[in-house]
Known about the structure:
The structure is a single chain. The protein is an alpha/beta fold and 483 residues long. The protein has 9 helices and 17 strands. It has a 6-stranded mixed β-sheet with strand order 7-6-5-8-14-17, with helices on both faces. Strands 1, 2, 3 and 4 form a 4-stranded antiparallel β-sheet that branches. Strands 9-10-11 form a 3-stranded antiparallel β-sheet. A hairpin with a 3-residue loop joins β6 and β7. It starts with 9 loop residues before the first helix and ends with a helix.
Amino acid sequence: xxIFKPTNCKGQVMVTVVIVLVVLVILTGLAIDSGRxxxxxxxLNAALDASGIAAARAIADGDDEARAAALTxxxxxxxxxxxxxxxEFCPPNGVPTxxxxxxxxxxxxxxxxxxxxxxxxxxxxxxxxxxxSANTTATRRAVxxxxxxxxxxxxxxxxxDVKDRSIDFVRAFHPNFDRLALIKYAYGAEVPVPxxxxxxxFPLSTVETxxxxxxxxxxxNCAEGFWHSKNQLEAVDSPSxxxxxxxxxxxxxxTISSYFEFDNNDPRRGSIRSGxxxxxxxxxxxxxxxxxxxxxxxxxxGIYVYNYGTSIPxxxxxxxxxxxxxxxxxxxxxxxxxxxxxxxxxxxxxxxxGDASGLFDDMxxxxxxxxxxxxxxxxxxxxxxxxHDRINNASRNILEAMAKEARQxGIYVYTLGLGYLLTQGRxxxxxxxxxxxxxxxxxxxxxIRFADEPxxxxxxxxxxxxxxxxxxxxxEEIIRLTI
Length: 483
């Protein structure tokens, strides 16, 4: 019988252990260096995201400014010698790619970077560095913007600041691919710079000149200004995916425009204003009056439609059922006042709301009561007080209804109010003007909101020092929508 003696394997085990240890060190080193490379790539991605967004925000100032912003934000967000890496921004020449679609106006900004990271353990296999790369594209979508600015007399000495901050605001948008319409309102409304309907861009220098030429006079026909803003956006052939109305005022609405009938058998289109009464003031409350008939296509008045002044209640034959200031096919020749009952444009926005008990199915929540003038000998006649309260309430109703229709079309509404009076109760219902501005914007703090409509916001500037921050907040939000 053969007997096998144990063999001494210590040498073989040692060799195996050494080999295993070497492999473990290499694998551990690969894991560590790979983890460090992954961390570098994550940091590159974060820095490039910030870089691309910064460029998109700065593109309104030109391509060079956008590229400079991209580099600045990349350097600010990528720590110096992170993991001992050496980054290179947009090699080989350091210039991001900026491409604008001529039809949509959308601008794509592509940024990229590489970084060589020294290895710690992979050097044992001859690899001293690891190259990491990343890229990202930020798209700045074009904006169609209607900018509506209060030109009423109450602006007063704040006029120069209103002009300067308005110019700063429009400069935040790119004159080559954003569209912009400028609207001003007081007794009526004008469009000194209409939107380009079949091409992109806007004439920045013209807009600046028109703003510089603003004069401030007259009452607050907000609805007329807002109607033009919505009409400008609706006129565009190929609208941008982002449509915005920015509406500025220093007071609550108190004027409406429509076709009105008079005792001279000559219906005319014009504006009737009411006073801004303070219900807490006995004198104000007991001196409610209206005046007209002003031209609705002029912010100030040199030529009146009818210069009835405060005697207009003695000549006016009731109120129109609906806002109809822009229905072109109304026949206003003497003794004739015709509406097509099948034309929906006649019946968008109510002037007369009846008893507000469901007479009109499409009335929005919060609608203020506006009854027809009392009938007298077959004619509708209002006293000065009765007409004042109806005009004031109608001016608020119509403005809110127009803003709601704009939001239903996907248009974002941002409102900006100046001065302490907006926080004070005014009008027949002792209602502060900012309550209307909150509703118009569908602001989260509005008492009545619509969850299925775009959410904007209202910004209150207590003084002109707050105008700049308010406009900047609106700019930031609009830019956020575009990226």
